[in-house]
Amino acid sequence: MNYYPLKARRGQRGYSLLEISITIGMLSLTLGSVALVGRSGEQLYMHESSHSELEAQTRRVVYRISRELMASGATTLSPDPLAPAGADGLVYQKAKGFDGAGVVWENPVSVGFRYARGEIDDGRDNNGNGLVDEGEIIWTRDPGTSSERVIVWAHLVREYLEGEVPNGVDDNGNGLVDERGISFERNGDILTIRVTLEGDGPGASLITHTGQTQIRLRN
User: Fold this and answer.
1) Which of 17, 64, 87, 119 is least crowded, fewest Cβ atoms below 10 Å from its Cβ?
2) Those residues with Cβ within 8 angstroms of residue 205's Cβ, 6 or more apart along the chain or in another chain
3) CA pair distance 202, 47, nearest whole angstrom
4) Contact status, residue 172 vs residue 166, Cβ threshold 8 Å
């Protein structure tokens, strides 16, 4: 009679309770690590996506402002945005043609900063959107007249430019003091335009992006 099958069966052992516990623990750690990596990757993706969207918004508004001001004359700007004060808004005129006396200018228009709807300058989030004292960039046709027309060009404008705080000092080293989230600076016929937008990021964080360009004004 062949006894080998019986011996094989007797040599087989099941897992002990300790071995099963160790295996379950290792499996739990592995699954937990995978879940943690997944959450970290998702948060990173959300942060990069939010920042990319804000960066695109900033580029669009800076381009729009620069295209609008490119045909304006240096002598038509009010106030004159010289350093270190610069300006957070400009009234300007665009050239529309020439006559025998020189350049013919259009009616005055303006572009600049104002506080967002529901916000006031008090260091608090008055409108409940998670941002403090944020503003808008507005374009105004025929400012101060009965035919005035206001269009909002950008929301989420930071109260002060990135790196700047209201302390009478040039904190971000750009030559201007306490400049707003939209600022203009003229040096000769070169106008520098700077804009900082701020928005909500993942996990109740705040993200900011600053755009800057320079244009040559008409004489």
Assistant:
1) 17
2) 47
3) 6
4) no
Joined tokens for residue 46: 């959300």
pLDDT digits (tens, 9 = 90+) for 160-176: 999 999 999 999 999 99
Pick from 9-13, 32-36, 81-85, 209-213: least confident: 9-13
d(CA 216, CA 114): 26
Please name every residue paired with 208 in a beta bridge, in sequence order, or none if there are none.
Answer: 198
Please, is 166 exposed, middle or buried when counting C-beta atoms within 10 Å of its C-beta (0-12, 13-18, 19+)? Answer: middle
From residue 178, give the alpha-carbon distance in Å to each of 69, 131, 172, 216. 23, 19, 9, 24
For residue 83, give the DSSP letter. Answer: T
- Report CA-CA distances (Å) from 214 to 36, 142, 171, 208: 45, 25, 21, 21
From the list 71, 80, 74, 77, the residue with the least C-alpha distance to 98 is 71
Pick left, alpha or beta for residue 212 (phi over 0 → left; psi -120 to 50 → alpha; otherwise beta): beta
Query: In b/e form, how buried is each residue of 129-162, taking b as 16+ CB within 10 angstroms?
Result: eebebbbbbbbbeebeeeeeeeeebbbbbbbbbb
**Structure-token match 């040599």, residue found:** 11
Asked, as a colleague might, if the bond just before 79 is cis with ω within 30 of 0, I would say: yes
**Which residues make beta-bridge pairs with 207?**
199
Q: Is the pTM value of this prediction over 0.85?
A: no
Structure confidence by residue, pLDDT tens digits, 63-78:
999 999 998 999 999 9
End-to-end CA distance of the chain: 115
